[in-house]
Design a protein that fits this description.
By secondary structure, the protein is of the alpha/beta class. It is built from twelve helices and nine strands.
Length: 298
Amino acid sequence: MLLVIGGCDNQALPDSADRVRRFRQLHEAGCFVIPNPWDIGSARVLVGLGFQALATTSSGFAWSAGRRDAQSTREQTLAHFRALADSVPVPVNGDFRGGFAIEPEEVGDNVALALGTGLAGISIEDSTGDPGSPLFDFPLAVERIRAARRAIDESGTGVLLTGRSEGFIAGRPDLGETIRRLQAFAEAGAECLYAPGIRTREDVVAVVKAVAPRPVNVLVHGDFTTVAEMAEAGVRRISVGGALARTAWTGFLEAAREIAERGTFSSLARNITGQEMEKLVDPKLSSESEASRGGPSR
C-alpha cells in the first residue's frame, strides 16, 4: 500500500498542464495527505517538508486577512489561488466554496475564471450558508456540479473536480443523504468526492464503497485517526482544512497572551530561529548566505 506523505523540492515551477497530470496521478492509487496552507509562506514551508500537493483553506485564508470564513469575495479568492499556484511547484487544489453563485450557469462562469489561476484541482460544495436551509436542494446541487464539469471540459485544462456535500458540518449529518448526493455528484462529473465532517471508520468506509472507484477525500482536523487507518479504509486523499492555520494561531495566541497578561516572554524561547525560518520559505538559501545573516530576525 502506497502512503504518499512527502517527496518534493521547491524548484522551478512546472507548467499548469504538468501539475494537473501529477495531481491526477496522485489520485490513482494509495493515500496521500494534501495539507492546507493559508498564505505563500505556509505553502512554501509545506512544500519544503515534502508534501506533493496542497489545497487552499477558505477559513485559514480569511483569518489571515482579518475576515471570518466565507467572507472573502470571489476576486479575493481568485487572487489567492493565483498567488499560491505561482509560488510553489506542486499542484494546488482550490477551495472554491459554492462557486460564489447559486444558479448553475453562474457557477460555471466563475469556475471558468478560477481555471485561469493555475489550479490543478477545484472543489464545489452544496452548502448555502443559510442555517435554516443549509444545503441546496438536491436537483440544484447536482446541476451546479454539472455546470462546473462543463466549464472544465470546455477549458481543456483537465483540472480535477471535487464534489463536496456539507451536511455533516452544516447541521444535516445524514449519512444516507450525503451518500446520495455524492453519488449524484460523481454521475454529474465530479472526479473526487468529499464529505467534510465524517469521522467514524464505518461512515468513511460506507462513503468509499458507495462512490467507488472514484477517490474520496476525508477531512482530518483532530487526532481521531491516522494516515495508515484512512488508507486501510480506502481513502485516497486526506486534507486538514483550517487546522494547520489554527495550530499556528494557537502558538501565536499563547505567546501574545503571556506577554499581555504576565509580562513575560518564555513562550518565545521555544521558537525556531529566523535563519531556520528563512531556509524553510526559501530552500535555495545557501549556507554562506545563512552565515552572513547572523543575529535575530527583525
